[in-house]
Amino acid sequence: METNFAIEKAGGTREALAKILGISFITTYQPSWKPNLPPKHERYLRVLKPAWFAEWDRLQRAAARKGAK
């Protein structure tokens, strides 16, 4: 999942996403967070917010269909 999508789903701020993950918000600025979430945080979010991943998957499939046309 892309970091920006997770930030938007969390409420639009890095602070909100960091609070969900139980980390310092400054951590979300690390280079390893671009463009996708680090694997350990993605696994944690999959447990906490499975609906986000379902939505992300739908968006990715729609983008792939659109790009194939």
State the main characteristics:
69 residues; mainly alpha
Description:
The protein is mainly α and about 70 residues long. It has one domain. The chain has four helices and no strands. It has helices at about 5-10, 15-20, 40-50, 50-69. Helix 1 (about 5-10) packs across helix 2 (about 15-20) and helix 3 crosses helix 4 (about 50-69). The two termini are about 25 Å apart.
Q: First CA to last CA: what distance?
A: 24 Å
Number of strands: 0
User: Helix share of residues?
Assistant: 55-70%
| Morphology call | globular
* Average predicted local confidence, pLDDT: 94
- Series of secondary-structure elements, N-terminal to C-terminal: HHHH
Whole-number tally of structural domains:
1
Q: In terms of structural class, how would the helical and strand content be classed?
A: mainly alpha
What's the total helix number? 4
Radius of gyration: 13 Å
Describe how the helices and strands are arranged.
Blueprint: H1 3-10, H2 14-21, H3 39-48, H4 50-68
Helix pairs in contact: 1-2, 3-4
Provide a short characterization of the protein structure:
The protein is an all-alpha fold and 69 residues long. 65% of the residues lie in helices and 0% in strands.
